[in-house]
Fold each of these.
Amino acid sequence: MNLAQLAVLALLVLSLSLTLWAARRTRTRAEFYTAAGRIGAWQNGLALAGDYLSAAAFLGAAGLFMSQGYDSLIYAVGTLAGWPLLLLLFAEKLRERGHFTLGDILAERFAEPSVRVLSSVSSLLIVLFYLIVQLVGAGKLIGLLFGLSYLPAVLIVGLLAVLYVALGGMLATTWVQIVKACLMLACGLALAAGVWMKGGGDLAGLMARAETLHPAGSGVWLPSKAMANPWEVLSLGLGLVLGLLGLPHILMRFFTVPNARAARASVCWATGIIALFFTLNVLIGIGAIVFVSHNPHFLDAHGKLIGGGNMAALHLAQAIGGTAMRDVVAAVVFATIMAVVAGLTVAGASSLSHDLYAGLLRRGQASEAGELRASRWSVIALVLLAVLLSTWFQNQNIAVLMGLAFGMAASGPFPVLLLTLFWPGLTARGAVAGGLAGLFGATALIVAGPAVWVAVLGFSHPLFPLASPALCSVPLAFVTAWAVSRFAD
Amino acid sequence: MKSLLLLLLLPIAAFYGAIAFFPSVLAWPCGRLPLSIPLALGLIWLGFLVTLLYVRRANRREGQS
């Protein structure tokens, strides 16, 4: 058994022990969905960071910096800007209303079942797309790291997610995310410190070497050609900033703290951790250019990085600290995947069992035990569906699904939630029409855009020129909600 | 809250506007670095600063009431 397998085994023992501990404290609906609101501010802050910083952020950001340089920071700025906005607009208001799901917040204002159906369906779609991306990434990464084929790898991840969430509910999920956030931050610090020391503590020297080695030369510190279309840049920025404000698994975390003060403080913790991580990533990215991109140990016969761009951070770990450091980082990647999958699963299952089963099928009359049973079956059903779909999507471009999840989150739940909380003129029909226009608008524009219409379907020109739909789909949702509320009721 | 929203959104909008329409601005020198790097890192930490200011302000308001 190598060090990576030992480290993964140690993390599995730790996470399953936490799950068993949490299972003894998860007997009611409130405990399952929100850990009964007993999560502290710093704990929720770490869990929020753990929920948000997926393997794509950990591995993808370093790979993106290595290939496209400054573009990685453009993504980071948009991502960070969403967090204070989340605090200013939603965090306290969500906590003050103190429910289990987003559907509850909307149902508090609108009694019509259609509003809860919209909320539930949009949450489920976003969670499912996000979950498929995580599972496809997990299957490929675990295959590369541990030599497992795709299906067993995603089945193991799925089974672990079922165990964490079905047994330990939100409490186990939270602690898995806390452990993951701490490990990921420690890994980021170790990698950045390693790059600093290997570069002789000379940042200017490292940057000069990066300029020499990167194909763009000094252009590595400037936006790449991918940012050449101004409207694409604006649409990407808008989608990155607003997408966060519609992600169900992030919004749900504000129901887990005891009061508004803790909700505020938890966003502060999360923002600080994520900002630190993206700052460290600049040094990690420079290290990847200098120590990995031209190192023959990490390149195949065609001069391409072994395992693709996402392996840049792992190769860097090997370049800095040898196989031992690479194995430890690989184990942290595994923990990262597990934590994000668990967070998504608890959000999706809550939407299924609380909004659809208890809220609509049982019209709010479900017993405590019945709803708890339904939530555990929902976990199994959701993970099974995601595993099945991930096997179909394993050879597709999963970046499209990620774009779809973010585009939908920015265009569907975000406008509806914002208008529900801040605009007294919104009607139930307006909320449903706005949400549907945003969801379908974002989906249609992504399909008609270059990422699907040209890259997947093979047409020569896209029907819609932008890969990111937010610039059109977000205003479409707001205008539709306003127009239907104003003129149709 | 409005002043914090402006403090956050104006620089972010200006940043994306500059990338979209005036990318050459980002190449201006800022010490030994191009402006792009300190600008992006500054905006990343501006997000944290805004959350910190809001939390302090809201806690003080809550303490007074």
Amino acid sequence: MNEEILIIQRLKKYYPIRRGFFAQEPVLVKAVDGVDLTIRRGETLGLVGESGCGKSTLGRLILRLEDPDEGTITFEGENILSFDDDQLRKFRRNIQIIFQDPYSSLNPRKKVDFIIGEPLAIHGLARGKELEERVVELMKVVGLRAEQRFLYPHQFSGGQRQRIGIARALALQPKLVIADEPVSSLDVSIQAQIVNLLLDLQSEFGLTYLFISHDLNLIEYVSDWVAVMYLGKTVEWANQEVIYDHPIHPYSEALFSAVPTTDPLTKRKRILLEGDVPSPINPPSGCRFHTRCPLRIDFCEKEEPLLNKRPNGSLVACHVR
Amino acid sequence: MAAPLLEIQGLKTFFFTRKGVVKAVDGVDLSLNEGETLGLVGESGCGKTVTALSIMRLISEPIGRITEGSINFEGKDLVAATESEMRKIRGNRISMIFQEPMTSLNPVLKVGDQISEAIQLHQDVSKKEAWDRSIEMLRLVGIPSPESRVNEYPHQMSGGMRQRVMIGMALSCHPKLMIADEPTTALDVTIQAQILDLINRLKERVGSAILLITHNLGVVAEVAQYVGVMYAGYIVEYADVITLFKEPRHPYTVGLFQSIPKKKGSAKRERLQAIPGLVPDLLELPKGCKFQDRCSRVFQRCREEAPLLLKLNGSHQVRCWLYE
Amino acid sequence: MEKVEALVELKKNKTAMAGLILICFLLILALIGPWISPHPPLVPDPINRLKGPSWSHPFGTDSLGRDILSRVIYGSRISIIIGLIAVSISLVPGTILGLLSGFYGRKVDEPIMRGMDIMLAFPAILLAIFITAILGPSLLNTMIAVGIVYIPHYARIVRSSVLSLKEQLFVQAVRSLGGSNLRIIFLHIFPNTIPPIIVYATLGMGTAVLQAAALGFLGLGAQPPTPEWGAMLSEGRQYIQNAPHVAAFPGIAIFMLVLGFNLFGDGLRDILDPSLR
């Protein structure tokens, strides 16, 4: 088994919001509220969950774009939360992100060679002729033509823009790449092109991916491990094959059963959850999922379940199962 | 068999922009019987939404115009209908729900008022009756305690709830046809499952025909009886849902299915079969078949002659010279 | 690419073209003024006082017998320079304040914007009068006064576009690459605020010319015998009954220049603002 490259423990991030003019105490949005994860070198961890579950915030915390309120993030054995500005700058080279929206993630007023070359310029790794050569090389790697470097982002299609974003992320030769819904704004036929590219790059450069997506078919396809989040917490974390065949947490089970099949004959037995995801402002007591859980017992409301290991190797936070 | 509820023939809707003529819909034929559900699938820019807006006659003129073809609905050609005739049909005989439940409801009006307004526009009922009907509609679409939620404003509801309200509003005048444009795209998976389940249950209870527009083949498989696959402005394949999913014929449809990640088989991480290239620019369409540049089975004729919609067995039709 | 597209759009936009033609006409007039004006603008001619338009004096003469056409032509130089300098005086600090205020938020934003609010609370002309009163009446001080008065407008416009730009993913992207704040502000955010600034500066040229003319009219701007349009208008006011041409021609000139900038600015807005397309 590969060594662990990133370990996240009990990570929490609350955002205060002011409600009304005279509110005394700010209300807290518990965006990330106790996440545990481990990613191993060269592997892909798929992170799934519905909107508002905190998966994008988690990405921002790992990149240290924001500071968590509690918990630890360890990257290659070092606690990244203790880094000073200088260490942080060096650290940034190790983790890069590919964004969901290839439109707003590229500066509309910069040409492609500037965009792809910028990380190298920021870190002073190349300049002049050498920088240009590196940009051309990166463009080739992601399937763009060298002469396209003098164009502006709006002259590209969505899929090509995403390739530009990927080239920028790869420029610093990162060890871990966070792919935050990298294909969900693209058309189906283009999605496959980009997914293939990401997988090719992984085997070529030995990349480690944290792959965030709401597309469960895609997560199943790309991941070695899968973590399921619900309202800021990891509720289940397991090997991809294990979790897709036998999800243990009732939320995982419902989530996987909700994916529309591409086979009209086999109508899957679907578990329909009641109601909506509760607000992260005042999340339910005890187990977050108890308000929608078909298996809930009284105890779920009182005590918060912790992640613990099951016979098949999965980590699950549930009292009932 | 009775005449179909909706029959579109040779529909062409063009947009006359400064850069040239955008042939958004370029010869669409389709028909839909009462109570049936037709899924219209395709990628962005393939003309599926413009087809729906053409049926509603909501193309923004003078930039956009229906230049050719007919849309027969209940024996009446909607292309020739006047604006006041259309106003009687919209929301009444044909209703539409949109992708964005966040922006398609007016934020300053109670949901009850919005549904009541839709009812009173088309039916001669009192305010009280319309209000009671609104509560009825909310109950129909599975909103808990509708008597109190009818008084809420859209921002007090979640995305899924708002989409239910939209569906309730669309059904409030018992339309013959409901057009749903990407109704679940903006929703989470578990909420999408709830809405698809609701649409399936309502189909049986209300009996409206549904034209479901989506890019998601999974959604089509769940809800539709017939499927039309659109590419660059026209329908390239049409069949009942089981035939289409079991025996897709058009190289584009085949490519679409192959590009969806499926359960990992024996070999781990078999590459996805991506369709190479890009959707053609609607301003500069190639001569002949519009899919030729991305097609793996292209031959001489495809480059010279635009393919016709060819009949295979049963209702299955495909626009490809391979099957002549 | 963008520049070429913008030029094509510009040619198609009738409003912008009309404004541009007006501005170019006055600009050429200002440039070749010394060669085409029939008389020296400052030399009095006591015999031909307050003469109406004639062949030798197409716009007539003023109370000292100076040729009004020549004075209007020379005045175009002054007004255009006033516009350019006044706008630069408001634009540069306004843009910087707006960038800082929008980007850093809260602790930087609050004091800057409250200061701007206070400036905006005074009627513009009153504030300009106040500033010229302190600095003393002169053409340069007019430009400074008009410039200062409009700083808050630029600060606000830049700030509001920075607020939406800094939420854009490309800013987050640079941050995650390790880019510094200064890099983000000046290399990434600033270029994206240029289109609204250009539009507002063009419209602002017209306003500045008008404000400077108003100060000139009140006797706080250019001092005699400088042929400044506002001052000429003010002087002509006394003879409005029997020699209306003295006030009319500088008035028409002001009107044309301001209209030119306004039309061009409105046209530019349509071209540069994709949301209005």
